[in-house]
Design goal:
Blueprint (H helix, E strand, L loop, with lengths): L2 H9 L11 H17 L11 H20 L5 H19 L5 H16 L7 H13 L8 H18 L9 H13 L3 H4 L3 H11 L12 H18 L2
Helix pairs in contact: 2-3, 2-4, 3-4, 4-5, 6-7, 7-8, 8-11
Length: about 240
């Protein structure tokens, strides 16, 4: 992209038109900012600041300021769904991650609500968030959250071994559980056979690869993720 193209797209953005109570709108706006930053070469080793990059960082800073006020007023699920956008905006604006204690407070509040029955918190997004934090040695997640992920993975593994053909689960649930199994190290369950297990898992669910049409955006995203994850397991 040329600087002129980046500049034109930058000035087409209107932060005042973003509904900062809607995580989807917030994530979309921040994603657009990140794409513009990439086009402006912000991540290049030899990058030199430009007027466009300064404007992008300024917009990202405004997003952070708005979310600093908005996140405490959101529901636990809305706040959790906004965390990734908040962190990306913070990194773009200030070249540092968002405050870890602030992020963890919101995420762990959502986790607590989820395990006590709040179905608005997406358990698969929560699973991935906890696994990322554990991989980064964040001790805030080493107790109940880590235990929950271990129990969940074992349950989803045993469930998949029985197949989902007569399951009452939605496509969204099935695809996400399969995705997580494909992403996970299953050596503890399958040993050196885990690659064959994953191959069989993909074959069992090929109908989600072949002309599958999702009925909603969340399931469509999960199906796209399955298409990406399944490639390495189709052929052994």
């Amino acid at each position: 992209m040329s600087n002129l193209s980046t500049d034109m797209r930058l000035h087409s953005l209107d932060i005042e038109s973003v509904d900062f109570t809607d995580p989807v709108e917030i994530r979309g706006f921040v994603s657009h900012l990140c794409h513009l930053a990439d086009d402006a070469g912000v991540s290049a080793p030899d990058f030199m600041p430009t007027r466009e990059s300064s404007e992008i960082r300024s917009l990202a800073g405004k997003v952070v300021n708005k979310l600093d006020k908005q996140l405490p007023q959101m529901t636990v699920a809305e706040a959790f769904n906004t965390l990734s956008a908040y962190d990306f905006a913070h990194r773009l604006a200030y070249r540092t991650p968002a405050d870890r204690k602030f992020i963890n407070k919101i995420a762990l509040r959502a986790f607590d609500a989820m395990i006590h029955g709040d179905k608005t918190v997406d358990e698969y997004e929560m699973y991935r968030h906890i696994r990322r934090c554990v991989a980064q040695h964040d001790k805030d997640y080493f107790d109940k959250p880590l235990k929950w992920t271990c129990i969940s993975l074992e349950y989803w593994y045993k469930e998949a071994s029985r197949a989902y053909e007569h399951s009452a689960l939605t496509d969204y649930d099935i695809i996400n559980r399969v995705n997580i199994l494909l992403e996970s190290d299953l050596y503890a369950y399958e040993g050196h056979n885990q690659h064959q297990f994953k191959h069989h898992l993909v074959e069992q669910h090929r109908h989600y690869l072949d002309k599958y049409v999702a009925t909603d955006r969340k399931t469509h995203s999960a199906a796209e993720r399955f298409r990406d994850a399944s490639g390495r397991h189709i052929l052994l």
